[in-house]
User: Fold this.
Amino acid sequence: MTSSAHLHTCGVGQNYLVFDPQGRVAKCQMQMHVPISDAWAEDPLRVLRTDRIGVQNISVEEKEGCRQCPWRYWCAGGCPLETFRITGRYDVKSPNCNIYRALFPEALRLEGLRLLKYQDDPEVVERLVLSMPAQDHP
Assistant:
C-alpha cells in the first residue's frame, strides 16, 4: 500500500487498460462493452490516453466540490464512472463524498491508535518501517 497522495482515483485513461478474451481493449473493467482499441493496435495505451469519448478521469484538483476538501488526495474525487452515471458529469465530487468524509477521519484515528499500541515494540516498528516504500523512510 502506498501512502502517497494521488490526483486520480484509478488509472483509467492514463495507465490502465483492460483486455477481453477477444483482444478488445477498454478503459475500465466496468466498460468492457465500450472497447476503444484492440490488442493488435500499435500502441493501445496511446489510444486510451488520447480518447475523449467515454469515461474521463479528471484530476481531483479540477473537480467541483473537491478542491478545498482535506481528504481530496485520499479519495481523489471518487470513481469517475460512478460519478458520471449518477450526476451526468465527470468534473464534480463523488456522490459518496459524505460517506468518505465520515469514514476517513475514523480510519485515520484507528490507524493512529494501532501505531500507538505498538510504538514501544521494536520488532513491530521495524516491520512497519521495512514495509514502507523506500522513499518514505531513510
About this structure: Strands lie at 18-19, 24-26, 37-38. The helical segments are 44-50, 72-75, 80-87, 97-118, 122-131.
